[in-house]
Amino acid sequence: MATTTKVIGYLPDDRPPVGQMILLGFQHVITMFPATVLCALLMGFPVSTVLTVTGFGTVVALIGSKLAMGKFIPLYYGSSFSYIAAVTAITKPTFGVPADPELLAIVQTGFVATGVINIIVGLIIRASGGKEALDKVLPPIVTGSVACTIGIGLGQAALNNASGYLNNPAGDLKWWAAALVTIIATFIFSVYLQGKGFISMLPILLGAVVGYLVAIPLGLVDFSIFGTSALFRAPAFTFPNFADELTLTVIFGVGIMAIATIPESTAHLYQISLYVDHLADEMGKERYGLSKYIGLNMMLDGLNDLINGLFGSTAGTNYGENNSLMVITRNYSGPVLITAGAISIVLGFIGPLADLVSTIPTAVSGGLSIYLFGVIGMQGIALMMAERVNLFDPAQLAIGAVILIVGIGGNIGFPGGFLPIPLLQGLFPQGWPAIATAAVLGILLNLVLQFWKPPVVRANVLND
Length: 464
Known about the structure:
464 residues; mainly alpha
């Protein structure tokens, strides 16, 4: 007798029960927390403010997508690493110490500029034919390679956290042990809980719990963090200063970095669209076709950056880590992401909750990052496969090759991931950001193909 297996997963407009939404939302918060907080610490922004504002920006973007097209675009918005060089050139922060609020207010004008740029790009895309028009500038070979570069290029950061290298360059087996247990536990939960109901959607949260419990007897959990924050605290909101003499410099220097997040955002939308449609097919439901809404997605990215710039948070991007989580758990629920945004907002106001998440040792978050960052890279490959990118075509092969080597090699091989290019040093005092530079090179090479068409070679040319 034939048996049918129930397909486990949530599509973007699905609303799980309240208890499940809270757990799934908290899992998203754990996933975004390390990168978002690290960006805040590196750029000198107050962590509580960044958590609250990015959570609010995520909620606004999700509701915006629902109002605009009647369905959710399931993406989580956190802090972007693309802006670190341009921002720290102004704030010159000490790690973990909030920078001068007056300097932050000037930097925020640059974030407002990125929001405006993204909105303008989104409007142009919507007016010029959507995905087909964008593919001429950002074809799958570019977006897929950029996604692959982002994931693999972050590999060193994941390994640094997992190994405790930044604290002890000689290495420490305790850190490796906690990270390895986290990876193995997360792998087991991801693979062997499939089809087991709701619990199959919590592998990252479960892996984090196992890693955390192992890290306690190893002495990696610092409980002294508890009690350092008041029960209730108001985030320190700041507002942009458009009147300072540095404002125009910042608007140009920070705003131009939006070019790094546009390919990233595009790649993330294409990836999530691919997997959402696959789940819809399995469920026998209508495909969402989210990739058609790339223009709207760019406008929502811009709206999110405007919110960050106006209220004192770091410029954002939709997170590949959370995309990876959704792919692993097959949970693309927009209401769950709204719940995650709400939890992030609450964390900004309630000290002990933020303290609890802050006690997660980097060995555990590093173990999770090895998995999540790797999935980002693999999703880039999956995108190119799904779009049938011809890697036997010399042009496509060259574009992908340049992006991968410049992006990954530069991000891992040079301090901070900045290429030592002695050009435009006023804009890039620490060098050119490798991943952004790789994306631009890929775009430029593809534009050559648009204006100078390569010869069409028949497959049987050798037989003529």
